[in-house]
């Protein structure tokens, strides 16, 4: 089975309902030979990211999952900094930057606002905010996967379990 690397971009997992529960479900489902979860808030509370260690983890993986809560229609700043520091020229892009070629990139994210808010009050739906990440996958030679996402994280108590089920099903499907 493919090796799955989950990069958790939540800046405060100790205060999380959704993302913490989703990570726990993944760890319950997949054993440590298949799954590595890197909790950026624990590893880098000071935002001082160890690019070499992160790159080694990426090289080892077949599927890379970015797991995060939507903050201001984007990834949290800790995950943005991870992207900036880790996807270096010569590693992730450039003529010799081929380390990520052929790996699958899957975004898994949660949003506080409900689907009704996105559909009726906003000019853009939730997945419409992700083209920059799709281009990042293209530039780095990764295979873009349709994201797994949930609306209404603040209102639906069962949402983490439903999200985890969909994410696990997708991971099993693309691992085959
Ligand atoms: C700084 C900040 C910015 C946020 N921005 C958005 C946003 O742009 N859109 C949205 O739907 N929810 C937004 N939220 C709500 C979070 O996405 C929501 O609380 C989170 O997905 C729940 O996951 P958790 O329980 O793991 O923290 C924001 C929350 C915070 C703290």
TrEMBL record:
Residues 2-163 form the Flavodoxin-like fold domain. Gene3D superfamilies: 3.40.50.360. The keyword RNA-binding does not apply. Keywords: Oxidoreductase. Transmembrane segments: none annotated. Its EC number is 1.6.99.-. The keyword Transcription regulation does not apply. Coiled coil: none annotated. InterPro entries: Flavodoxin_fold, Flavoprotein-like_sf, KefG/KefF. GO terms for molecular function: electron transfer activity; FMN binding; NAD(P)H dehydrogenase (quinone) activity. This is General stress protein 14. It comes from Corynebacterium matruchotii.
């Amino acid at each position: 089975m493919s090796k799955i690397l989950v990069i958790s971009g939540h800046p405060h997992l100790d205060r999380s309902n959704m993302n913490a529960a989703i990570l726990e479900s993944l760890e319950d489902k997949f054993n440590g030979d298949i799954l590595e979860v890197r909790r950026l808030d624990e590893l880098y509370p000071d935002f001082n990211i160890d690019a070499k260690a992160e790159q080694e983890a990426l090289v080892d993986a077949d599927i890379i999952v970015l797991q995060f809560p939507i903050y201001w229609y984007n990834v949290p700043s800790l995950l943005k900094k991870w992207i900036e520091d880790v996807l270096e020229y010569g590693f992730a892009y450039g003529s010799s930057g081929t380390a990520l070629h052929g790996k699958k990139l899957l975004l898994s994210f949660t949003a506080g606002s409900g689907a009704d808010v996105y559909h009726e009050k906003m000019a853009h739906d939730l997945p419409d905010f992700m083209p920059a990440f799709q281009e990042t996958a293209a530039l780095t030679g990764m295979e873009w996967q349709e994201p797994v996402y949930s609306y209404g994280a603040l209102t639906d108590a069962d949402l983490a379990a439903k999200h985890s089920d969909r994410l696990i099903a997708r991971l099993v499907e693309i691992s085959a």
